Amino acid sequence: MEVTLLGTGTPAGLPRPDCPCAACAVALGPDARAATALLVDGSLLLDLTPGAAFAAARAGHSLGGVRQVLLSHPHDGPAVEVPAGLPQPGRVPDGRELALLTGHRVRAVPMDAPGTGYAVTGPDGQRLLYLPPGAAPAGLEEASERYDMVVADIVGRPDAVARLRAAGAVGPTTDLIAAHLDHDVPPGRELRRRLAAWGARAVPDGTTLTVGVYEDVPDVPRRTLVLGGARSGKSVEAERRLEGFPDVLYVATGGTRGGDGEWAARVHTHRERRPGSWRTDETCDLVPLLKEDGPPLLVDCLSLWLTDAMDAVDAWDDDEWAGGGERALRSRVRELAAAVRESRRTVVAVSNEVGSGIVPATPSGRRYRDELGRLNAAFAAECEQVLLVVAGQALTLKG
């Protein structure tokens, strides 16, 4: 089964008309996108958009063989002239299945937002799922049959991918294609980087893909370290990387601080922006978690883990440090790094990058800075990807 993406943008397209934003300013060439529409095997058109016939011609196809046009959007949208010879667009009721003479079967998938999703099974048995913008499947059951390709609003609804993964409908070989792309994320490298963290990708308008051929599916890094200064956006970046995965375990190493209202407000903010399906474990005992099998871990943060470890060995006292505290701390760091190396879980860890700041005024402050630098280096050495976040912008240092 072949799918040609005639467009991959929102109904307004990208760049948006008369929009002065930075993303629209650089959405040129292959990063410019028309409204999303899919041509399946030259016979099924999913969403009729302005200029669909010209888009097909540019991609080397014709709409002359189209026998069915189906709409996914929650409304019919702006008036679109139906090209001569093309059947009138229609919509399949939720839960119903349509059998085409071409051998394709199309089932309407209920959404959690207005609109209709379509599960298409080709004559060769390959399975495609196409979702409307801003929507995710509703009422998925576990052990669902796996799709070979999913075309969806992945940037706007990464939780849709998480739901599909939880139900078994998306696996390691599923080709996740981002559609309905808007100006929320800068196009080009930044868009590719964010999608790759979810195991997804974007392709230029006019691209023809073969369903079931997954050589280009990005490999999700299993271990990632996200570094950054205070309020750099490092925690937001780390959380964003796991939004496409279900049942994430958020490991908070800061614990609770009775009577500290400002700290309680920070913790509340973090909890509020995390998906409701994530669980939280407030602990600094990371090694057992890394050794266990289970869902992805998000560790926030290593800086506070180091504070706890230095407290445990009384590293703040010069005599204790010289008398064995330094050796004990280094042993703990080596044990943590070894657990990261051997872990089979997906791990995203956050840490502060303090080496570029001012020199601390006290010996204990300088000791903490030095040990955090050593910890970051040891942890980074065991990760497939390392990012540095500055002013909300993620720079790839490794991977």
Question: Could you explain the architecture of this structure?
Answer:
By secondary structure, the protein is of the alpha/beta class. It is 28% helix and 21% strand. The chain is built from 10 helices and 19 strands. It has helices spanning 22-26, 52-58, 158-166, 189-197, 234-241, 261-273, 286-291, 302-312, 318-342, 363-381; strands at residues 2-7, 37-40, 44-46, 68-70, 97-99, 105-109, 117-121, 127-130, 149-152, 175-178, 200-201, 208-210, 223-228, 249-252, 279-282, 297-300, 347-352, 385-390, 393-398. The strands form 3 sheets. A 7-stranded mixed sheet has the order 5-6-7-8-9-10-11. It has a 7-stranded mixed sheet with strand order 15-14-16-17-13-18-19, sandwiched between helices. The chain has a 5-stranded mixed sheet with strand order 4-3-2-1-12. It is elongated, with a radius of gyration of 25 Å.
Helical run tally:
10
| SSE-based structural type | alpha/beta
Placed side by side, the strands forming the largest sheet appear as 5-6-7-8-9-10-11
Number of separate strands: 19
Calculate Rg over CA atoms: 25 Å
| Helix-strand string | EHEEHEEEEEEHEHEEEHEHEHEHHEHEE
Q: What would the average pLDDT be, to the nearest integer?
A: 91
* Beta-strand percentage range: 15-25%
Biggest pleated-sheet summary: 7 strands, mixed
Which overall shape is indicated by the principal axes computed on the Cα atoms?
elongated
Helix share of residues?
25-40%
* Low-pLDDT runs: none
What is the first-to-last residue Cα distance?
33 Å
